[in-house]
Predict the structure.
Amino acid sequence: MSEATTAASSASNDEIAAYVGTKAAWYERKWAIADSRKSRQSWNWAACFLGPAWMAYRCMYWQAAVVLAVTLGITLVELLYFPTYFESSTLDPITIGIAVSLGWCGNSLYKRYVERQIEKLRPHATSRESFLALLEAQGGTNWLAAAGFAVATPLLGVLLYMIGNVGGATS
């Protein structure tokens, strides 16, 4: 990769490649597609279908926790205040909307995250080589976090469903 920097970022392609890991070329291509569009967005199927698990895999932990909390919070409100809604519908339009939004915005969210992390880590390196090594160590992916979110999401959903049934039974 060249030493060219991305638009609106001082991160070089080498720095991005070091932080992102093996899929850096794929993301750089998606980011270039997005930059050529008026909306600055490109589609990410993994972000759409895996949501918080994809975010955790890409080491965006607090973002994954926020998306999961919002989704579960909306589900809890629906269960407590609209219990017949779940009995009559298997697809929740709000959850589908969140998934589609993540699919549409996932690549740009990840790009901003990567650029911020690179700038945050820049002062901690004494040389270019040490900086690239630091980016590789701090970046990349985390299968364990993705698995944790993938397991926690349905378990928390079942827990909320049980809470909703108790809340609905007492009212």
